[in-house]
Amino acid sequence: MKIVADRDILDALSGFGDLGELVLVSGRDMTANHLADAGALVVRSITQVDEALLTGSSVRFVGTATSGVNHIDQQFLKENGIGFVSAKGSNANAVVDYVFAALAYAVIDKSLSVQNCMVGIVGAGAVGGLLASKLEKVGINFKLCDPPLKDKGVSSEQVYCSLEEVMQCDIVTLHVPLIHDGEYPTANLISVQHLSLLPENAVLINACRGGVVDEEALKTFLRDRKDIGTVFDVWQNEPLPDPGLVAAIDVATPHIAGYSQEAKSAATAMMRTALADFIGGARFDHAEGVLGDKDHNPKATVSLLERDVKNAIDSWQCILNAMPIVDISSRFKSAVVDGEVGVFDTLRSELKGRREFLAMKLKAQGNNAIDDSQHNFLQAVGFEFSS
Question: Can 209 be counted among the known catalytic residues?
Answer without folding.
Answer: yes
